[in-house]
Amino acid sequence: MSTKTKSTLTPDVTASRRKFFITAGATAGAVAVVSQTPIGKAIIQKVGSTVSEKKDGYQLTEHVRKYYETTLI
Asked: At residue 58, does pLDDT exceed 60?
């Protein structure tokens, strides 16, 4: 008896997963590049000034600002 199991994934599913991860990696790289441009930095400042105007509830802290910089689209 064989201990190997047969994969139930079809070639289409495997190719689809590869395409997803390639696209996700390219998107993450693009976000990192854009966040360092003058436009990206202006957007980060705008988000920061909008959030910091609120006196109660959510507070924009340095670690949250860094998070926003890493997730800039």
From this structure: yes
Angle, CA 69 vertex, CA 50 and CA 21 arms, to 5°: 130
13 CB-near residues (< 8 Å, 6+ apart): none
Q: What is the pLDDT of residue 43?
A: 78
Cα torsion through 41, 73, 70, 46, rounded to 10:
40
Could you tell me the pTM of the whole model? 0.41
Distances in whole angstroms, Cα of residue 62 to Cα of each of 11, 13, 45, 53: 45, 41, 12, 15
Report phi then psi at 56, rounded to 5.
-120, 160
Q: 62 pLDDT exceeds 80? A: yes
Residue type at 61? T
